[in-house]
Design a protein that fits this description.
The complex is a heterodimer of chains A (about 425) and B (about 425). Chain A is built from 15 helices and 14 strands. In chain A, α4 packs across α12 and α6 packs across α11. The radius of gyration of chain A is 23 Å and the shape is globular. The N terminus of chain A is likely disordered. Chain B has an eight-stranded mixed sheet, sandwiched between helices. A five-stranded mixed sheet of chain B has the order 1-12-13-11-10, with helices on both faces. In chain B, α14 runs parallel beside α16. The radius of gyration of chain B is 23 Å and the shape is globular. Chain B: Belongs to the class-I pyridoxal-phosphate-dependent aminotransferase family.
Amino acid sequence: MEKENGANPSSETERWQFGHNKAVVAAGNRSLREAIYKVIACVEETGPRPVIPIANGDPSVFPSFRTTPIAEEAIVEAVRSAEYNNYSPTNGLLSARQAVADYLSKDLPYKLSPDDVFLTAGCSQAIDIIISALSRPGANVLLPRPGFPMYEARCIYNNVEMRHFDLIPEQGWELDLEQVKKLADENTVAIVVCNPNNPCGSVLKYHHMEEIAKTARKLGVMIISDEVYDHLTFGSNPFIPMGIFGDIVPVVTLGSISKRWVVPGWRLGWIATTDPKGILRKTKVVDSIRSILDITTDPATFIQGALPQIIEKTKDDFFNNITHILRDAAELCYNKIKDIKCITCPHKPEGSMFVMVKLNLSCLVDINDDVDFCSKLAKEESVIVCPGSALEMKNWLRITFAVEQTSLVVGLERLKLFCERHEKN
Amino acid sequence: MEKEKENAGKPLEEKWHFGHNKAAAAAGSRSIRGTLSKVIASVEETGPRPLIQLGHGDPSPFPSFRTTPIAEDAILEAVKSAQYNHYSPSSGLLPARRAVAEYLSKDIPYKLSSDDIFLTAGCAQAIDIVIAALARPDANILLPRPGFPLYDARCTFYNVEMRHFDLIPEQGWELDLDQVEKLTDENTVAIVLINPNNPSGSVLKYQHMEEIAKTARKLGIMVISDEAYGHLTFGSNPFIPMGVFGDVVPILTLGSISKRWVVPGWRLGWIAMTDPKGILSETKVIDSIRSILDITINPVTFIQGAIPQIIEKTKDDFFNNIIHVLRGAAELCYNKIKDIKCITCPHKPEGSMFVMVKLNLSYLVDISDDVDFCIKLAKEDSVIICPGSVLEMKNWLRITFAIEPASLEVGLERLKSFCERHGKN
C-alpha cells in the first residue's frame, strides 16, 4: 500500500501510522516526579545559596542518612562472587524470599513461607504488579485522599476505576470508614492503606486497623497494605503490620528496603501475601501475580543475592539512629510550622518522612493555590515543597523533613520568611 | 451482622469481589520461562549425571563466559562511592545515557545525543515500554515467526493485535517481505526485527535490511530493532545496526549489556531513538515513552553509575574471547546436528546464542511433537531444549550453544543417543 506525501516536514506525521498512546499520557500526568520537576523549574537563583529540597522522600544523598556499611558490603560480596550475574527466577531467588519471609514473620502471629513472597524492583513495581493483577473490566479500587499518586497513575494505566475516600485530618488522618462503605460496590476489589503514611506522617492505631480489616471483610474486598515506611515510626503509635489481621481479611503487604535502609536506588521490594487462610491463592489472585511476574523484569540478581545478609546483619544501632534523626527532624518541622501563620499542621507527624500541612490562603495576599505557592516559593527562596494538588489535596502542602538537619533549619526559615512576605497585614 | 452469617456459606467468588486477571494469565502463558519450567519439571534423575541446559540464553554461570573484571570493578566503585543510592531520574542518569549514546553512535552515520537514550531495566523492560507506548485501540504490530515470545506476551497484555510474518529458513531466515506487505493495513504501527536473531542465530545482510527499511517506510510503519545480541556475530555477516537506515524509516533500537557483557542479572538496557529526522518526536511516540518512564521503575542507580566505565573501559580482548567461544560452540553444535538423523539445521548459526532446528517426526517412533520430544529428552537424558511451539514454530527446536563447551559436547551426545533410541529402524 503506497502512501506518498511530499517531502514537507509538517506532512511527515500524516504518512506514518503510529502515534501516541493517550491513556499512558494520562497516567503519566499523575506522576509526582513531574509535579515536583515543574516546581523545581521555577528556581531562578544560581547560587551561592543552595536549593533546599524538602519535597521528595529520598534522604539517601545526605550524610546523616547514609546506609549501613553492612548493606554496601553485602552487595560487594555478591558482585565479587560472580554467582549472581544470571537471570533471576520469576518470583526471585529463594534465599532472598526466605529472608524477607523471616523478616516479615517477626511481627506477625503466623509464619510466612518464601512462597508467600514475590520480589519486585522496588515498592513502585509492587504497586504496578498488584494493580495490574487485580484489574478486570469494571473493577474499582478504593484509594486514600491524600495518597501516593503512583496508585492513581497505575489505575489509569490499567483502566481500573479509582474511588477516593478521605483520611480525616482532625482524627489523626484515620480513614473515613463510613465513606469507604458508601463508595464500595460489587465491583470494588481492594482498598489501599498506606501505613506509616505518606504523605501525612500518621501511624494507625491497632483498634482502627482492626476496624479497617472488619470493614474490608464485610465489603468483600482485600487490603493492599503499603508498608514501604515500615518501622519508621518515632511517636506514640508503634508500627503494626496490617498482616496481623490477615485472618480477618486477605492482606497483600507491599514493602521494600528503599526507606528503612535508605537505598531507593537499589530497587528491591516485595509483594507478600499475608493471608493465612489462603484466599488469595484460592481466588487466583496469586496466579495473576505470577503470570505478570513471568513476563516482567526482575530486581537485579546480585542485590537479591545480598538481601539475606542485608536483612540479617544490619544492626539495630543503624535503624535506631535513622529513627532518632527522623524524630528530631519531625519535631523541628512541626515546631517551626507552628510559628508560621498561614500554615497549619493538623497532626504532628510520627512516622514516614512527610507531613501534610494546610495552607490558609485567606492569610496570604497574592497566592492563588498550593501550586502557585510552591512555584513562588521555589522562585523566591529556592525551597522545594510538594503541592498537595498532586496528592488530591488542593491547598495543602507535603513537606519532607527527611533531609540533613542543617538544610531543614535553613529551608524552614526561608519558608517562614516567604510566608511573612506574602502575608496580609 | 446478618450479612456475615449469610456470607459464611457462600462460595469464595460470591464472598470476595476480587479475582484473577484473565488477560494477565493469557500473557503469562506466552513465556519461555513458563514453558521451560514444565520441561524441567520432567527431569527425573537426581544425579550424579548433571542436568544440561540447552534451553535458555544465559551463559553467565559458566567460567568461559564470566564477565570482565572491569565491569565488576565499575559496579563496586559505584556502590562504595555511596553516590548512587538515590532514585534515578526518569530517563536514567545523564552520564550513563551519554555513554550509551556514544557507544551506539560508533556504528551509525549520525550522532546520538543523551536525549535519544532512555535507560531501562534490561531489554525486557524496553520491550514492555515500547509495546505499551504504541498500544492504541485497534493497533496491530508485525512480529517475526519464529520470534521471542515476550513480544507476544506484551501485545496480549496491552491488547495489541499481533500479526506474524515468517522468517524463511531456506533463505537464511530472512524476512518474507511480501507477506509483511500483505499483513499490513492502516492500523499497523510497527514491525519488530531481532538481529542478530534469537532464536534462529541468523544475521541479516545489508541489502536485505535496506529493503526492510524501505518496505516499512512505504507501509508507514516504524521499525523496532531488537539488538540485544548486538555485536555477537561470528560468521560471514557482520553486525549492522538497523539505525544505519534511520533516515529511511524511524527506528527504535532496543539493547542492553546483558548479552555482550554476559550479565543478564544486572538489568541494564535501553531504548534508543535512532531517528535522525525526529519523526518519533513529531508523532509523539517519544512523549508516550516518557510518560511511561515517569511512572515506571528504573534500572538500579549504581549500575547506571557504573555504565560509563563499563562501556568505555572494557577491552576488545574480552569481547573477542566471548565471540571466539561462541564461534567454537556454534560450530560444534552445527556439526553434531548434522550427525543426527531426525534433526535438520537449515542454516548454520552465525550470531546470537541460539539455533533453530527442525524435527523430522517421521524418523521418530513414539514422539508426537516438539513439546513431547523436549519433555521425554528431559526425562530420559536430563537435557533441556526449548520446544519451538512456544516460539510459534511447532515441531522445531531452539538449541542454545552458549554453555561451557565441555557441557555442550555432553549434551549434544545425549541428544544424539536419545534420537537414536527413539529412531525408526
